[in-house]
Amino acid sequence: MKKTLLSIFLILFVSAQTFAHYLWIETKPTGKLNTEQEVKVYFGEYTYGVIEKVQGENFPNVKDFSLWVVDPSGNKTKLKITPSEDYYKALFTPKIAGTYTVLLNNDNIDVIDYTQYNFGIFKTHYHSVAKVQVGKDKHDTVIQNEKGITVKHISGSDEDVKLQVIYKNKPLAKNEVKIYVADLWSKTLETDENGFVSFKLPWETKYIIETTHKEEVPGKFKGKEYEFIWHCATYTIIP
Fold first, then answer.
1. Integer Cα distance of 217 and 231 in angstroms
2. Residue 8 pLDDT level (bands cut at 50, 70, 90)
3. CB-based contacts of 110, cutoff 8 Å, min separation 6
4. What is the phi/psi pair of residue 51, to 5°?
5. At residue 17, does pLDDT exceed 50?
6. Residue 50 and residue 136: Cα distance in Å, rounded?
7. Most CB contacts within 10 A, which of 121, 202, 227, 230?
8. With contact defined as beta carbons under 8 Å apart, do 151 and 163 qualify?
């Protein structure tokens, strides 16, 4: 009986962990003119130390993402991605000074049936953002996810981080924002009535910010019906 209960617990735990996975972007926070900037895309759970292998069991399910960079003038360029062992890599070369926004979008993931875990049948929409600063002329990151959720970094003080959560081009009020660092440390905040959230960076380490939203609209994708769409956006801060 104890072994059976343990097996059930492990199945539920693994399933919950898989569902909690997210895509995120890593790149150096500053770049140089006419110098290649490397961008990496990971899938897993940073705070748990889980990084999926590109050719593993889980990463192939979310590999059909697009990766773009938007320069300070608003020009958007699609990046060519190449696989590595546990991440996808892309390169771009800044040509003008200012704030660059790297955007990942994946709205092409198969419908998942989690009715056995009391979660339902749903479609997933992942979105990720990263910022690269070239020179001293700082601006907000751009938002380009009309069908889902995204995070905008508001330029300002280096001591505090101010973000705005946007859903379908409108501020998302009273929405949870989770901040993750390594070794199972996390903190949960809530956006204000205008979708803003602010926090400090107490340690010189990598932070991954995640926010999600459940869109209660049924539909059909690739011939399979779903009950709702689960939107997930991440934003990475690297010192």
1. 12
2. very low
3. 61, 221, 222, 224
4. -125, 115
5. no
6. 35
7. 230
8. yes
